[in-house]
Amino acid sequence: MQKLLLSIGIPTYNGSKHIKEALDSIVAQIKGIEQEIEIVISDNASTDETPQIIKEYQSQYPIIRYFRNEENLGFDKNVDLLFKRAQGKYVWLLSDDDTLEKNSISVLLNKLTEYKNTSVVFLNYAECDINMKEYPHRQRADIYQDIYCENGDIFFQRSKFLFGLISSLVIETEAWNQSDVAKYIGGGFVHVGVLVEILQNHSALIISDKLVNLRTPETGNERWRPHGYSATLQPGFELVKIFKGMKDLGYEKKTYTYLIDNMYRANLKTILCVNLYGVNNKKEIAVNMIKSYGRYPTFWLIHLPFLLTPHIVFKMLRRIKHFLNNSINKK
What we know:
The protein has about 325 residues and is of the alpha/beta class. It contains twelve helices and nine strands. Strands 1, 2, 3, 4, 5, 6, 7, 8 and 9 form a nine-stranded mixed beta sheet that branches.
């Protein structure tokens, strides 16, 4: 039996709210290419209606392969299981609350055929609200042309820090399985860690066409912060660990410095956001933040003081801002 070219891998946990949209966006474009692709779903022991929904789709679409873990193994292990279960040469990771753009699969298959030796493909994405309506003004950086990247330094410098979204990543199955995956389990960014490992000595392709529709966190999508607002700081520390480790993997200094600088620039905004809603474990966060950003002088002057400021101060400032805005609007 000829090996499939592509597995679309969906890690899910209690995804019943949006997973139908994700599946519909795939099956609407599989006619004529059923022999080249499969859909692999790894369910992390969902307690909602996710299993029933998937079984309904399975009865109509035999290319869907469904696996349900006996217990919730966490995001990282569930993603790793997708690669172990996949039969395709490549795995296109897709979050259960994102969707694929029309004809995106055929565009990708053509690119994979053209760039046969590429181990990683990054797909640009559209930023959408909770109802999947695209924002007229993009909030993040954009990419305007396809870029073939001979190495990881080129990829990480040219992908404009957009590679963290799993739905935008297509990764060679064998390259993933040969990586030191266990090293990155538990931090919530196993896909970024393995990406760094793979691109030490493999090439990548950046596709500028927006082939994925992202349901953004700014729209109140709680999937981005399942454990509360304070948890949004912790993933940043994990990413910085990964980026600092790039030095030992032979990456150029300007590559990992660029990535860590990006994390630092976003840190203050995150502090202001979480402090507005209250943070209980400030001591632990402060320790991790010092390890991550202590080399920046402005960290000690601005970031750390803002973190340690009582959240009641931010709540008061927010109320004053609302009061002033309302007063101005009434005039």
